Amino acid sequence: MTLQSQIVGIIPARAGSKSIKNKNLKMLGGKPMIAYTIEAAKQSRHIGRVIVTTEDEGIASVAKEYGAEVPFLRPKELAEDHVTDLPVFQHVLHELAQQENYFPKIVVQLRPTSPLRRTIDIDGAIELFLQSPEVDCVRTVTAALQHPLKMWRIEDGSLVPFIAPSLYGIEEAYNQPRQKLPKAFVQNGAVDVIRAETILEKNSMSGSVMKAFVMDEDISVNVDSPIDFELAELALSQTRRKL
User: For 52, phi and psi rounded to 5 degrees?
Assistant: First the structure.
């Protein structure tokens, strides 16, 4: 069994979306948004199989059209708003084992809501994972636009620092320029590389030991709202003009 055959890319794409109707199939730059993720995954030099998990026949049909596998449909109860990634990915791995006797060792989660993510980002995250046998997961991140030490809670009408400044020993950290604060990063949802055993045995999508693969801010758009979609369209058009 080759290393590539042990690495499966899984794209979770359910039909339900409250903010953007049929988000995964919405046309972006001339093709369905999900197509960008499928194409980037198919071009990876490390991923052996690209599988879409969905409960929707329409999404399944489009996914197959762009070269992804949809060996089975996701149960509708695993496509509800409250369902987390963990049971969805456990379902995929269990079905692959039962139906095909296929037991991948590495899972690459690729959300279709990150259409600007490139193959080089996917392969970079996988290579970092392969070089780090001690980790459970490699997760893509980007620099945080708003520093967490400048965030607040409101308690009984009063502002309270979301993170105690004393944690970093910086007096009134919320009044300091960003350059004086420790660098902060936010997960961008583009690529997660996870050990299959972490998902199945530790019941976790990350495990306890993680490393970060840093991506540029301009390709870290996560489409979760109509404004995000417009930003993705703008970024895509600008990229094409540079070609």
Answer: -105, 130
> Rounded to the nearest 5°, which phi and psi values hold at 109?
-85, 125
Q: Is the pLDDT of residue 140 over 90?
A: yes
C-alpha 162/C-alpha 153 separation (Å) is 5
3-state secondary structure of 137: strand
* pLDDT for res 35: 98
CATH of 4-140+186-242, one of 3.40.50.150, 2.60.40.10, 3.90.550.10, 1.10.1040.20: 3.90.550.10
Give the model's confidence band at 243: pLDDT under 50 very low, under 70 low, under 90 confident, else very high. Answer: very low
Would you list the DSSP string of 141-199? Answer: EEE-SS-GGG-EEEETTEEEESS-GGGTT-TTGGGS-GGGSPP-EEEEEEEEEEEHHHH
CB 24 within 8 A of CB 59: yes
| CA–CA gap between residue 195 and residue 8 (Å, rounded) | 11
Size (the chain), residues: 243
Determine contact, residues 15/58, Cβ cutoff 8 Å: yes
pTM here? 0.93
* Coarse DSSP helix, strand, coil percentages of the chain, rounded to the nearest 5 percent: 40, 20, 40
Residue 159: per-residue pLDDT? 95
Considering only CA atoms, give the Rg of the chain.
19
pLDDT at 240: 62
